[in-house]
Amino acid sequence: MSNGKIPEASETFGAESAEALQALRIHELSVRSDPDDPESSLRLDSVSLRLEPGEWLTLVGVNGSGKSTLARVLAGLPEAGATGSMARGFAGVYPAAYVMQNPDAQLFGETLREEIQFALEWSGQPAGLFAERTEAALGLSGMEELADLPWSELSGGQRQLAAATAAAAGGGPLLVFDEATSMLDETAGRALRDLALSHHRNGAAIVWVTQRLDELEPEHRVMAMSRGRLVFDGDGRTFLYGSPPGAERSPCVQCGLRLPYLAELALEMYRRGDWAEPLPMSEREWAEKRRKAGLERE
Amino acid sequence: MSDDYPSLLAARGERVLELRPGTITVLMGPNGAGKTHRLEQLAGLRAPDGARIRFGKEPLWLPGKKKAPRLNRQALLQYAYAAQSPEEQLFARTAEEELRAALAPYSLTAQAQDERIGSSLEAVGWDDSWRVRGPFRMSGGEKRRLALACLLAAPARWLLMDEPTAGLDAAGQHLVAERMREKRAEGCGILIVSHDSEWALQLADRVWLLTAAGELRELEREELLARPDYWEEAGLPLPAWLSAAGSLIRGGLPPELALDPVAAAAEWARREQAAAGSEAPDVPGAALSDAGARLALAGRISLASRAAAEPRAAFSRDVPCGALDAAEPLAAASLGEAGMRRGSGGDGRAVKRDERTSRSPSRRAGTGPLASLDPRAVWLSYVMLSLAIFALREWSGVAAAGAVVAAALALGRISLRRWRAAIFGFALFTLLVSALAGIGWNGTFRIDAFWMSLHSMARTFLVMLLGLGLAMAITPLRLKRSLELLLSVRGTLPVLAQKIVLTLTLIVRFIPVLLSEWQRFARFAIARDKETGRSAGSAIRRIRGTAMPLLLGLFRMGEQVAFALESRGVGSRKTPALARTERWRKRDSALVLVSAAIAGALWLLFS
Q1: Going from the N-terminus, what domains does chain B have, and what CATH number goes with each?
Q2: What is the pLDDT of residues A261-298, one digit of tens each?
Q3: Are the C-beta atoms of residues B169 and B133 closer than 8 Å to each other?
Q4: Of A294, B73, B199, B605, whose CB count within 10 A is highest?
Q5: Which of A117, A247, A262 minimises the CB distance to B244?
Q6: CB of A225 within 8 Å of any CB in chain B?
């Protein structure tokens, strides 16, 4: 593309009428690291995918694998040097909420209430609804009490939750979290994830970019990236253990991520013949395994 | 050995924290407990807040003759420091130059320097061809490796690292762990801040556990593994992997075995069979000897066993693996040393948390009486008073205006302390410009010209004070909104006005961020260059090492800010909806009337 932008809703995808119900589709998308140099390396290499309305997609990969670039494209942010086509479908023509690692680069106001207000001003909603919307956003993240405190009174985790609250206040059909929990401890990370889950329950599609494998859900869709290419698209359990299970076949290991201790333990149990598929993954499943071995905490 | 490598001590009151050579200590704790702050204090990058820190014989701070204490360069030379995202600190044109900068503080011969550069490149799996590579053309992972090489290159006895695995792939995390094991075997003392418990506890000998309230508990690794309640007390949820491994440990499996997934699986299988009432022997020995035999083969229990399963990417190609065996188990001798203090987490004198000062100097969201007023009223008052001040002709008027400004700041309870440097600078500038204006063609000093110039500059100065006060009292976004409401025509704002107002708001908003970023990189420059001098030369060197990373950091942040704004629809939607959040009340009218009266009085009396 000479203008360096990804074309919107290309005609190759046909009917525009039921656009709101259509999947977001990306076809043969490539992005060069230097838009002006056709020889430069590819940050994204012929990526094609469909994202259905209301779907939860976890995107994993090591640094430099292209997952952030793909996340920005999915969020509808302009990407210089992109070729290929994209139909925004249910995500609409305006960019989706996009939450990054560093809260301080995404907060423009001085308090959360101000921040939400600022987000709503540009959300395309009538000003009359702002007050109501602000309260709803605060309620969803449970931050009512912190709404009027200056950022210096909030912890890093709370500031990050604030940034996500404001970004999602517009109530769009798609939210993109780009390694939003990477600077957070488990408690703060979980709070942010709960906020994303609330929006998901309300019908929003979520793209959750992460390197933290403890955030994978067995049944959620996982896509893994390596060197700009999509190398895996399947459920969380298969990503972690492979199919059939085996350390060598684990897509997780293949895309350069560290296999967690628990996954190694489970794989060893499988190798020994003690456990069969499905291998445990969620907290509940592990608790069950502990109970069976008489290891449950008293 | 203890003579050569005495401990790193941090004392506050009677509480003494000790880092021993040849050990790896991991500092853990919840977000906001101040882990990074503690690490920076140990490195002398932050004021010690009353703690006495000593690297062996060298105190970190020397008492100043008249002024504040100053850093002891000999102590700084004892450690190498890797901040969070150490790749952001790189500033040189080539990898070799970067490594030379890390070695420059140490008086090494050219040959010794060259050898260290070569061996540190080798330690991260690189050959000599990497010397001429430019850091700014490297990928993120390569930059991280160069930063690790810089850490390893310095002939330092202590390594201080902040979140070394964040953002690294499996091979990179493995590489860091291996190099740390080697350094430990060489006798280095290592302190690592990490929230990656699974990685860090494989490596650790000891743990400093920081609670959310800022209290610090010293533990042997094994104690932490076996005590879920310690995690809870620190405000950390027990990691899922440890609730599994921990239950095996409490069931009698030695912690070193529980940390190895293969040995843990053997024990788990045994427990499962026992629980199912099968005929498996219910003696821990059976599985243990099995696991034990495996361990004798595998050598030290560690991530090493996992490394085999991991893809050996380009990373481990040149990494010497034989060095692994050099890593000793916990040195029992040093554990038994007298004077060791441990497990005293409940100590009331524990170093108190100091979160407020550890934060970036972010401004307070508008407080004081003015915050409750409509920004438009405040803004109108500011404009009227400013115009009146600019119209003043007499010196008596300037004096009166000075009184008005002082009264306004006092009544609004606005402190301009934050801006004292800027205010002082402008005052100096005012005097200087006036003095220059007074110097005539023939070298004589014309006092009337001096006064005239000073008079006009003084008015600007007063308006500036008032403007700074306004910026302090009302947050940038409120100010922006009030400007938009003032400038909007029938509910919409002209595009040009919109752009100008948004740009100004963002500039004001990010000034504190800019300052804190400068301070951050300046701290790292101290850790790298070990510059403690106050001479002009050292100041210039410090600026050089700070400016480049800062500039790149600002580019990165600018990009993120742009993403954040675009994702909120700024730029793609033509007209933002303006919320009429502010309500004009009686007190707003009162403020405007009073200001108008004062402005009018100034104008009538003095112009």
Answers
A1: 8-236+320-347 (3.40.50.300), 369-606 (no CATH)
A2: 999 999 999 999 999 989 999 989 999 999 999 887 54
A3: no
A4: B199
A5: A262
A6: no
